[in-house]
Amino acid sequence: MMYSTGQRTVNAVAIMLMCVIASTGFVGCASYRFGSQTMFRPGIRTVHVPVIRNDTFRHDLGVRLTEAIVREIETRTPYKVTGDPNADSTLQCRVVNESKTVLSETVNDDPRALDAALSVRANWISRNGESLMQNSAIPSGDLAITFGQDSRFVPEAGQSIDTATEEAIQELASRIVSQMEVRW
Questions:
Q1: Mean per-residue pLDDT for 83-88?
Q2: Does domain 41-178 have CATH number 3.30.160.150?
Q3: pTM of the full predicted structure?
């Protein structure tokens, strides 16, 4: 049987392609993960987020931050938030500080621009007690990460401490959930 040069090339490419496909089954590529799933821990499916404790005088900060974190986890991660304390993992947070600082004043000492700041300590642990948040700046004995966020507001422009605090809460929730990603 006579083959032309073009047909030989096609046959050779087809044979090589079949060999590559057959060999990948033996190499162990079945556990290879790709896409956005590589950013999250494969052994974790559920996260318990208890209501965040609040050490400040602003009574609603813990509840508002809890709601924001739950929304972020549900929309940005493959994890399912559950009320079950026996979930695969638990995200524990605590609002440790809240402050308001005057940045500039009018001639009559009325505040013109202010800064609202929040500090939150967070720790994400697995069911067996392993710390899941990774940060190389954490001292070895401390298992929680402190997050700080501030937001500026101008009362003359119709902004209030509540709008600035809500902005800071949303940013904190985003940063805390970002720390749930696996580091390369």
A1: 91
A2: yes
A3: 0.74
